Amino acid sequence: MFILGISSYYHDSAACLLRDGVIVGAAQEERFTRVKHDPAFPLNAVKYCLAQAGVSMQDVDYVAFYDKPFLKFDRLIETYIAFAPRGFASFRKAMPVWLREKLFLKDLLIGELANLAPAVDWAARMLFGEHHLSHAASAFYPSPFESAAVLTLDGVGEWATSSLAVGRGNALEVLRELHFPHSLGLLYSAFTYYAGFKVNSGEYKLMGLAPYGQPTYAGLIREHLIDVKDDGSFRLNMDYFDYCTGLKMVNARFEQLFGGPARLPHEALTTRHMDLAASIQQVTEDIMLRLTRAAARTTGLSDLCLAGGVALNCVANGKLLRDGAFKRIWVQPAAGDAGGALGAALSAHHGMLGMPRTLAANGADSMRGSYLGPSFSQQEINASLSALGAVYEVLCDDELVARCAADLADGQAAGWFQGRMEFGPRALGGRSILGDPRRVDMQKTLNLKIKFRESFRPFAPSVLAEDAADWFDIDATSAYMLMVAEVKLDRRLPMSAPDSALFGIDQLNVARSQIPAVTHVDYSARIQTVDALTNPRYHALLTEFKRLTGCPLLVNTSFNVRGEPIVCEPGDAFRCFMGTGMDVLAIGNAYLRKSAQDPALARDYQHAFAPD
């Protein structure tokens, strides 16, 4: 049986294909169209999934969509009525789109599917799951747990903004929900907007900015914006927000409370913005801790699964793990709306059709490292590079690893394009840019000369799984880079009195540990543990780098520049390589040096994509 899962028409459209409940392929549409957060019907992702399975569209038994448009429309109408006459401008803007397209989304989907297989009665094969149930399914069914509590947290689905469910075997039961407009995701996004970052993409920046500041506004947030109960449930004071009725996240009353208008994207970041980031991060962590502790009490279970956009807050996830309310925590690597495509398909397979669930062997999850996207043969790679005029060598496996490890040890930045593309927002050694974590200048070099992004943003380490506990305070795996842990005390460097007195962005260039390029100003790091079974080539590279340097870590950031989707195919990688300060590139077994390339192939890559 083949089930195609789809999420689309909001942001981060994606497709996933199951064969008898096993994930064949999954990918976001943005990777193919090169449009960040592309919301369109995921035609290219669907075609990829079908090709990966070696089937055509008429072979698909069911198509599962990740939410219920009529319920979402019901929420929209009820909200406008509740707040009328405020919000007419927003109502006037939204209604034509809904009445023209989204209200008849089933017909729109059937039309797209009919373009792929016109002889099929797609109306009889369409299934719709609720948004947060899709999130919950994406978290529980691929997890390594026979039973678990499942917590979902995001902006909003139809009505729900968070949910608690229990998964047992192939069954998933929702116990309770919080409803719009009371949303932890939208609260965090309000501060993302206020700090001058884009909603639905800049939340990472706010999280990265938080350690530079102090939570001096946390009291104001708790006093005026949100009423939090002991069990983590809460209500927002909507007098300060504009997202129900307006075209902005916050209103003048919010701006007055926090000392001025929202920062414009081109304006400098100040200590005030850093303190605001630290404050909302602290409040978010407090709410998540209360929610998980209550979930543990309610369910009596020892394992927890997380999904929804808020579950990408890896700083909070690390604190949940250390809190110990649950012994084990598993976070869906595509926790945002893209993962809804996977959740919709799994929910249809297990929940709607009642198919049994089989756990993966040896305590593993069933995501296969989240390497679920396209891969390319060496013949395809060579043909693509030759057509673009690239100069390259094709090396054997051992020579490629040895050459790249030596380059990295020499301080060079390397593009690393290997195997299948990752599903989700993190690069995990399939589509990565790598560097030496021991170098003090590596963070600044990667941010300013390669990623073309803000200098304050931290980088994550990939570390050999067997060596992680020697470098970080963590006793669990973190294969998907969704847990933050502190660098161990014996790996830290002593701080001088002047360095210790620095605050704000001035803290950036102080070496705090033996691995300064991946040590944030609060000694934290967003860890990816790498094992030989899941990604043998990346594990081999880390092993060789350790042999050369004694350090079993590499800086790992996504293979793209600011505002660009992560690269998908070899041509994307070569163009990014030629437009940035990367020194070397490994695509499959093809090895390229920048110095050997025709300078005429370089491009102004910094301005090729709109800032995120």
What this model shows, in words?
A hairpin with a 6-residue loop joins strand 6 (147-153) and strand 7. The protein is α/β, with parallel strands linked by helices and 612 residues long. The chain folds into 3 domains: 2-66 and 68-128, Nucleotidyltransferase, domain 5 (2-Layer Sandwich); 184-330, ATPase, nucleotide binding domain (Nucleotidyltransferase, domain 5), CATH 3.30.420.40; 378-462 and 531-607, Carbamoyltransferase, C-terminal domain (DHBP synthase, Alpha-Beta Complex). The strands form 4 sheets. It has a 9-stranded mixed sheet, sandwiched between helices. A 5-stranded mixed sheet has the order 3-2-1-4-5. Strands 8-7-6-11-12 form a 5-stranded mixed sheet, sandwiched between helices. The mean pLDDT is 92. It contains 20 helices and 21 strands. It starts with a strand and ends in a 19-residue tail after the last strand. Helix 7 (184-194) runs antiparallel to helix 11, helix 9 packs across helix 11 and helix 11 (271-299) packs across helix 12. The protein is globular, with a radius of gyration of 24 Å.
